[in-house]
Amino acid sequence: MKISPRLSLLLLLVGLLLFLGILFHSYLLDYVVMPIATLLLYLWRIIRSVDQAVYWGILLFSALVYVSYQAFFRRLQRPAVPVQTQPSGFNATLENIRYWRTMILVTQDEIEKPNMLKRELGKMVASMLAYKQSGSSTVEMYEALKRHKIPLPENIYAFLFPEESSVAGRTFKQTLQAIWQSPRRWVRRWTNREMADYHHSIEQVIAYMESSVTISVR
Asked: For residue range 160-189, what is the model confidence (pLDDT) as tens digits?
């Protein structure tokens, strides 16, 4: 079972709170639990002191207002929906949008390593380069990109073809660096900064392909 870093940090905080609660249980009992319990007891006595007829009256009045709003006001305020004919290719465009949106969502836990979205974007770049260079196939261009044989901006290479090293193949220095950088990565994921950088990198790849196509057309 794979546990996300955000869930790990949450479990760590819950465990820390439980440890502090056990360590300072008398302080929490006197200054937190007892005041809250006393306040809830007073609130319950106030609620019990009010006649139940008042509660039933409020409930019936709220139900009547809600039914009246649903039956009359919303129907009057509902605008007329004009009949629109969908243009040709609209469904295909919508399916493409859904496809790429799904690709981004399902790769959120694989930001720092090769994933499905990066592979598809890499193939798109390879297809664009193969179109610009006659006689080359997309597969050949993609393999050349994986070996860094074709000049691309470093940020594009770092995003589309990150180096994925296994845990068993790491050196002792790399393991220490990974442990040292773990809190920083947790904070970046917890604050959604890592996801924002991920989306920014996708925009950079798209902007690079757009600029390359524009230059080739000119």
From this structure: 988 754 444 455 565 666 666 667 666 666
Q: Which residues, 6+ apart, have CB-to-CB distance to 198 below 8 Å? A: 108, 111
Place of tokens 């290719």: 89
Q: Closest Cα to residue 104, out of 206, 213, 208?
A: 206
Q: Which residue has the higher pLDDT, 78 or 67?
A: 67
Distance CA 187, CA 192 (A): 8
Q: Report H helices in the chain.
A: 5-23, 25-28, 34-49, 52-68, 74-77, 90-106, 116-132, 138-146, 154-160, 172-190, 193-217
C-alpha to C-alpha distance for 208 and 200, rounded to whole angstroms: 12
Give pTM, 2 decimals: 0.49
Which amino acid type is present at position 17? L
Is the dihedral angle over the CA atoms 115, 117, 120, 123 positive or is it negative? negative
Contact partners, residue 133, CB within 8 Å, separation at least 6: 141
Look at residue 191 and give its three-state secondary structure. coil
Residues in the chain: 218
Q: Residue 36, exposed/middle/buried by CB under 10 A (0-12, 13-18, 19+)?
A: exposed
The pair of structure tokens assigned to 2 is 């794979």
